[in-house]
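Quick question, first post here. What does this chain look like in 3D?
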Amino acid sequence: MTVVAVDTMLCVRDLERSLSFYCELLGFEIAWQWDSIAAIELASSRVYLFTESPPTEDKPQVWLVPTEDAERGSVILVLRVKDCDQAYDEICGRGGTFLTPPATPPWGGRRCFLHDPDGYLIELEQPPA
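> Answer (accepted):
Ran it through. Tokens below.
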């Protein structure tokens, strides 16, 4: 098996609201968009945003829906940045709201978290030097 990329798919309630959040606040660009799905890109990474997806022939019995509870999620979208404090200031300047300011975890580096409009947790991570 030769993997050429790893992408993420997030089920969202309102595609336009999510596109606005990811593009205007975080700097993603829309690669393409159809009725209920869009591909956005940043730093050679792709995230698909889509509305509810019922079971299909190739994923029987699997119904994808937006997260119900932002405080009990199962996904963290990690954006590795060169300077966490600078990225935090930039996003705050655009109207972003974080859970806490950047902090240094015991293993080093810097990080901070915010939620997207559907409650998905986004981490800005500056790896240890």
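The longest strand covers residues 37-42.
Residues 8-126 form a domain with the 2,3-Dihydroxybiphenyl 1,2-Dioxygenase; domain 1 fold (CATH 3.10.180.10).
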